[in-house]
What does this fold into?
Amino acid sequence: MTDQAWAKLPAYIDFSGGYDLWDVERLVRFAGSQKAGARIVERIEQQLAENNIGHLPAKLPTDSTCRVLLYNKDQPNLGFILRLIQELATGEVNDDTNASIHQLKTLLDGISAVYQPNAQRDAAARHAARSDAS
It folds into this structure.
């Protein structure tokens, strides 16, 4: 697969919301290979890194049936949150850790604020339904 094709992958992932679920076989085929050997997987990881695409798990498996979550590290949305989580989960504690934890909490609070009103409304509706049934 050409570098040009890999360079288009971030836009494809952006179109899917900044993240997408692929199996290893699809990545291997995208790379122009037939089988997920250690060297092929290593080259795929390198291409993903060069195009600022993160992946979970952090080490791609060689089992072609395994699923991998790809995300665009440049996205200011969920891709960024996933990148922070991965860095915090796999990295060493350092001077930036507190700032990263705070940033992650702030981002998660923003997401929670979007969903919280719906959860409160749904809980109130369930409570009202139980009261009406009594």
